[in-house]
Write a structure and sequence with these properties.
This protein is of the alpha+beta class. The protein has 3 helices and 4 strands; from the N terminus they run H-H-H-E-E-E-E. The chain is rod-shaped, with a radius of gyration of 35 Å.
Length: 128
């Protein structure tokens, strides 16, 4: 019996003020959906652009170095500090890490850039 009463209440038209509010809400819903759709399309376009252009990112990260045309390998002379004793060497791209002890006996690490031939960084280790 209550079902029949609810159906009758739903069939009544809304008063004019509520109809204006309903129209505004429907319009707001349409605008919100359109904005979200444009945003999702922009994100998808950015993802597709990045996938299609893989070569640009890797080319920018590589250091620029001059290449000798001679068949011999390039030679770089690095001036390590006097008294520095090398204990280990590690290579990462165009940088070489020399780990060892200085003339004062303290542990040190020197980072050499092969492309320029200069020591980029010197790290002194101290016991705390």
């Amino acid at each position: 019996m209550s079902k029949v009463e609810l159906d009758r209440e739903e069939d009544k038209p809304l008063d004019p003020e509520m109809e204006k509010v309903r129209r505004k809400m429907v319009r707001l819903l349409g605008v919100s959906i359109a904005i979200m759709f444009v945003g999702v399309m922009a994100v998808l376009a950015g993802v597709v652009y990045k996938i299609v252009q893989p070569g640009e990112e890797t080319a920018q990260d590589l250091p620029v170095a001059s290449v000798d045309a001679s068949p011999l390998p390039a030679r770089v002379q690095a001036g390590l500090p006097v008294g520095f004793v090398v204990e280990s060497v590690s290579l990462d791209g165009s940088r070489v890490l020399f780990y060892g002890r200085g003339s004062d006996g303290a542990n040190k690490a020197l980072i050499l850039d092969i492309t320029t031939g200069h020591i980029v960084s010197q790290i002194d280790f101290q016991a705390s």
